[in-house]
Every structure is written in C-alpha cells, then in structure tokens.
Sequence to fold (325 residues):
Amino acid sequence: MSIVSSTKPFMHTILTNSAEEAAAILNRGGVVAFPTETVYGLGAGICHQEAIRQVFRAKGRPGDNPLIVHISHVIQLANVANEVNFDAQKLIEHFFPGPLTLVLKKNPCVPETVTAGLQTVGIRCPVNPVAQEFLRFAHCPVAAPSANLSGLPSATSWEAVYEDLDGKIDCVLCGTPSSIGLESTIVDCSGSHPLLLRAGAITLEQLQAIVPAIVTQTTIEKGASPKSPGLKYPHYAPKAAIILCLTHETMVTEPSSAYIGLSEPPQGVSLFKLCESLEEYGRELFSFFRHCDAEGIHRIYCEQPPVQGLGRAIRDRLERAAGHE
Fold:
C-alpha cells in the first residue's frame, strides 16, 4: 500500500463561515474542507496539482485511491466527463444534485493524480447549500475525498475536521453537521452495464427504480486500482474495537463499552445511542464513534440493520469499520 507521506510544514488553518473566502483560498491553490450533506469533503481545485497532492499528504491517503470531483451544476459535466451515457443521464436527471457519485469516462483535462491513473472519474453534485455556494465561487471543479485522516471515521462536523486536520490544511469552511452522515452512493456508469460500487443514502432500490439494470459490486480484483473510494482499504474505524451484533443476541458487555443501534441497549454499557430510525443511525454513526474515542471506550457494540434500503449502507460502514471484507 503506497501512502503519500507528509512533507509540507505545519500551516495555519483558517476557520471561516464565508464560502467566498474559502473559495478564494482554494482558487489560490489552497486545500479547503467544506460541508456537504453526506460528510465533510477535503477539496482542491483540479487545476492545482500541488494542492491535489497536499490532499493526499494531509490525509495520509493511499495514492491509488481516487478522488471524487465535485461540481455545482450539471452544465460542468462536460468539463470533467468525456461521455455521459443513457443510464448515467437518467440517474443525473433524478438524483443530481444530491448524495450520488457517478463514475464516468474522464475528460483529458482531469489530472490522473485525481483519478489514481484511471481513465474514469467519480463526479458528484452536492445539494448542501453551503457546498453549492462554495463550488460556484470555485474557478474549477473541486476534487475532494472525506475530510478526515485516512482510516478513521469520516468527519460530519467542522469540529471533527479541525480535530483531524488542524495545521495540515489551509482552511475549514464551517457549516452545520452533515444531514446524512454517510458517504455518497457510487454507481459506475463507465462500462457496458451500471454497477453499484458503494451503498449510500440513495438506495439500490431507488436506483433500480430508475435504471433496473444496476447490480452490486463490492470487491475489486487483486492488484487492481479501485474505481471509487471505500472499496480497497480499511475505513471508518475508531480506536475502539467494533463488535457487530443482532438484536436477538445476548451481549456480554464489559467496562468501557458502548452501544449504537435501533433496539434497546444492553445493560452495563457506559455510553449508548438509541436511534429512532435508519436515517438517524446513519447520521449519528461516525460522530458516535468519535465520541466513544474521546471517552476512552474500548468496545462499541453495533446493531446490524437489515440489508435493505439505507440498512445496506450502514452495514457496509459497520463491516468495514470492524475490519471485515
């Protein structure tokens, strides 16, 4: 696994509520974290190669893990995608802007540092109003992974971004906590048939209602570069051990343990988060992981939801956080 090591000295990280100020820093070649409805992103303009490299350095991100390019309007698709086929167009019409990333054949102007050498690129148009304003002020599309240290839980608040990346990036655009809390759904539309690469808030069932041919793909060939983030390397893990459980199981808790799920927590846990819905479960998952780390929790018991709808995305994050392939 190739990790881009950090060589840039400690820098002052600016906190701002101004999308215009944050975009001005990005336009000068800076690296800026910004809010989206899924998780916070760590952005660099695709026209700034050194800034793109700094994104990898700041996160400690593997160099073969591609970035997602963010746009403010579908009119910008022609600047980053070489081809938008019929299936992709249907998905764009129904789900852009929103928490969906489409993998398409890339425009030659997109640097291969963004795509990890691939001839495809993931493209997303977030619906979050602060993200929209920031991207409109940007002079070029913005390449952005999640704004956290690689392998750790994604950041769903500006405070979590600052905790991970203070001194490593130029600016944090402070917004409200992410309303979804899970990374975007990713669909690969670059081949002969569309593939769901990563589950998210836009569910497989919703996608298939628009493009019935979509099927799932959760693994990649050994030695191959992933076409999207979240497929190849460990992700989302707190310091605490993740213990996956079902509602009918008897859990033997221990001191310094915690629980998150939809059912009543077991006796004896130090912390718990009882979620009223799958939407709340997804929204609170990563922030709960971070809270547990701050409280010195050693084990987190996580209830596995059904493998339908949003439950598929939550289970994916739980299994990856637990170290399951």
Summary: Residues 1-8 have pLDDT under 50 and may be disordered. The radius of gyration is 19 Å.
